[in-house]
Design goal:
This protein has six helices and five strands, in the order αααααβαββββ. The protein is α+β, with helices and mostly antiparallel strands.
Length: about 240
């Protein structure tokens, strides 16, 4: 009887040990999956942030370059570059936009593949080569896409598409500092607001296009300490009737 009781006790202890070992392995497997998911999301977010920041910076640089405004003089917060990248990505319906999407997917997929595989050394080298070439090509395509979109949007601004007019009430002692064409456009509220900083406004005086030709435009820097009042004139917009629910 004692021998059988001891053997039963040992078998029960063995079963309990196996159950604990199985549960331990399950917990370790779940923890490993959580770590893999966190690593996956981290790599994804880091890759997206790099290219979105680059696209936004290039876009703003070339947009304000069309008006002779250095980007460094605007003191743009770094997170604005992420926001302005939407102006590029949201309008990426050209072959450059589709190429950008394809290259981005290729780079991301290759970054997720394991490299330490001794049985396929040649394949690993090919994957690394494709990753390097695709990454470089993606930067080039991002650059071209952001530059082209910035130039197109700058031309739309010169053609008075989607840009609000602004006029200033200037201090008496400051009026003599501005050229006559600026004062005339300001009196008729024909200046278009490009951007502003803490210390100045940047405005555009663009005569209307004629016969498919855009004439010379003039970008002006207006210090805020010379302005008493700035008035923005909103464009006409159709009134849509709301239906009561």
């Amino acid at each position: 009887m004692r021998v059988s009781q001891v053997s039963i006790g040992h078998s029960q202890a063995g079963r309990l040990g196996k159950i604990r070992h199985t549960r331990k392995n399950d917990l370790q497997e779940k923890a490993s999956q959580n770590v893999d998911l966190a690593s996956y999301l981290k790599n994804w977010a880091f890759l997206v942030a790099i290219y979105i920041y680059f696209v936004g910076w290039i876009y703003l640089y070339f947009y304000y370059r069309q008006f002779g405004i250095p980007l460094v003089s605007l003191d743009v917060p770094f997170y604005y570059f992420f926001v302005y990248s939407y102006a590029v990505i949201g309008a990426a319906n050209t072959w450059l936009g589709y190429t950008f999407i394809v290259l981005f997917v290729v780079v991301f997929v290759l970054l997720q593949r394991p490299w330490a595989n001794e049985q396929h050394a040649t394949l690993n080298i090919m994957q690394k080569a494709i990753l390097i070439v695709s990454s470089i090509a993606l930067f080039y395509v991002s650059f071209a896409l952001a530059r082209d979109q910035a130039q197109a949007n700058a031309m739309d601004a010169r053609d008075n598409k989607g840009t609000n007019s602004i006029c200033f009430t200037l201090k008496k002692e400051a009026e003599d500092k501005y050229p006559p064409d600026f004062l005339g456009a300001n009196a008729e509220c024909l200046l278009m607001l490009l951007t502003e900083t803490r210390e100045r406004y940047y405005v555009l005086h663009q005569p209307p296009s004629r016969e498919g030709v855009m004439p010379y435009g003039y970008a002006h820097e207006v210090p805020k300490d010379t302005v008493i009042l700035a008035t923005i004139r909103l464009k006409d917009a159709p009134i849509t009737e709301r239906t009561e629910q």
